[in-house]
Amino acid sequence: MATQEGGGSRAVSLLGRFGGLVPAALYFGLFFFVPFGLIVCFSFWQDFDYKVVHHWTLDNYRYFFSVPDYVGTMWATLWVALAATAITLGLAFPFAYWLSRYVPRGLQKLLLVLVVVPFWTSYLLRVYSWLNILGDKGVINSSLTWLGVIDQPLSLLYHRWTVVVVLVYLYFPFGALTLYSSIDRFDWDQLHAAMDLGASPIRAIRKILIPQIRPGIAAAVIFVFIPILGEYLAPQIVGGTDGVMMGNLIDEFQKEALYARAASISLLIAAFIVLLLVLFRKSLSAREAYGA
Amino acid sequence: MSEREPRFTRRDLLKGGAAGAAGLYFAGAGGALAARLSPAAALEAEAVTLTWLTWFDHYFRQQLQVTKKQTGIGARTKLAPSDSQIYTTIRQTGSQFDIAAADALWVPKMHKDGLTDSFDLSSIPASKQLYPQARHIAIWKDGSNSMAFPNGWSTIQTYYNPKYVKTKPDSYDALLDPKYKKKIVYEDSPENFVGFAGLATGAKVPYDQTLAELKRSKAWLQKLKPNILKIVQQNFETVNALKDESAWIGLGNLGVELRVKDAGGPLIKVAYPKEGLLGWFDGEQMVHASKHKDVFAEFINSVEGQTAFAAKNFIKNGRPMFNEKAYKLLVNQGYKHRADLFNYNNPDLIFKAHLQGPSRNPQATTQTFTEVFGG
Description:
The complex is a heterodimer of chains A (292) and B (375). Chain A is mostly helical and 292 residues long. Chain A has 15 helices and 2 strands. In chain A, strands 1-2 form a two-stranded antiparallel ribbon. In chain A, helix 4 packs parallel to helix 8, helix 8 (160-183) packs antiparallel against helix 11 (214-229) and helix 13 (246-255) runs antiparallel to helix 14 (259-279). The longest helix of chain A has 35 residues, at 68-102. Chain B is an alpha/beta fold. Chain B has 2 domains: 46-147 and 281-342, 3-Layer(aba) Sandwich (D-Maltodextrin-Binding Protein, domain 2), CATH 3.40.190.10; 154-277 and 356-373, D-Maltodextrin-Binding Protein, domain 2 (3-Layer(aba) Sandwich), CATH 3.40.190.10. Chain B is built from 15 helices and 13 strands. The longest helix of chain B has 28 residues, at 10-37. The radius of gyration of chain B is 25 Å and the shape is globular.
């Protein structure tokens, strides 16, 4: 009886410790890890006559790396993701700094709402609206023509950099909100103390603020960089044939039922993401950031 | 008390959960009981809902609501991006779908591979509304049965803005002219791109090229690529690009020139390349593994028999339907000029085109496209 009671209390204790994990583990096990495992398998199988044949092979990867244009697209995707992330954070950091340090609390909330206002409209609408901004007869070209600055419309759409511009617009809220939540917890007295001791404002930010908000910066990079790696709609709509990214290749293969080819490219993106997480693993540790 | 402190104890939550579960159980049991007692509710409970894998331009929501009212048969639609994906989806999902759309030569492939069943077209009263040519499509015949109920069709031709394109592009090779750099748009369809290339380079069957023919097509597409402004997702983007003159040439279904004019765009002319035209016609098929095959004919009859919606479909989506009665309705509604401009009343045209269909080298066909436009 005593043993049974002991066993029962151990079970209750285990349930208490791990009970919270079970629903999430079941959900993600079923809807993330199982599909992910299938994608891994697909990437080592073969497409044949609109079927995926369960014949293990490295052919999908070999094929990908044998086509120089695909490899070029892979590097271009990385370049676009890096550039868009850097610009997004470059814009988001001063904004979050200003918001947190100089704006009264009441107004901060209003400005934060404005940051997320774009989310009230659909993603597609936000991307399509850029056609009306950058198009031959869009706002910029029409304004410049009206002002007499140009005779012929500037070619602003369907370039790689156009994709970067639109991605920065799309992901700015993710960067700004993540950085703001990190900067907002910072003790500004430390910055004042550093400057009282002779540090210039830039040096104080670099030596005092940035190390302490490093987990927030790492989180912002992850929230912006990772989704951009898999982007395909924005490049499709504003990038034209010059703005193709790996997501577009996946989309194309998937639409034409070449699932094994699509799976292998998906895994290459996943590999980049894992690499990024490994690189940032230290920065994500709050203890590391605070030097404890 | 801090806001973060829980408002409910664990006991409260468990009690609430148990009460909720009991409520759901009794609500379900009550519903079932009500269904048993009330014939109307029982009919509702037994009503069939078909799952339909199709394209967005094959139905209107209101059309399906009318069918639901008329027959009690509902429909859940899932949009399909391509024939190849319809084919693989139906093969993988078994009885999950009841009806599947497909184009021209994909229909016999799906039937041959045991994915669909043929049926007696003449037993569906709505088939009397079809043009005779559509009632007797040879490649869709399975004995006296038909493999699909015909819906719409179009050839794919070249549209150009004469303000910028001074020589009529009556050959696919005309599209390679460097003066059209970044001035051509077409939809994201690898098989059609490769098909155009096949016609340009003399492939015997543009949708089913040999590996040697695909190699020639790839070389042709590489020459075309600098001239492609954008590969669009929807036909309306071709119309928009021609309208705002960011593109001078577009390839598309019938009637693009009129849609550009409707949108307030410039004069657009049409050219028919001498190498021939690609084309498609599509229809609805009965899925072999469907558990509701008994209501397929009734459902199709109701949906396809709504002539007014067929006419509206033509006006909205801008390509001919096979519904002859809808043509007469369009004439009565004052749309004769528009319908004739789209060759609505001339369905023979489509049977002269190179018809969309599966390739014996599907992987190589798609790769011919992605190796050019994927980088």
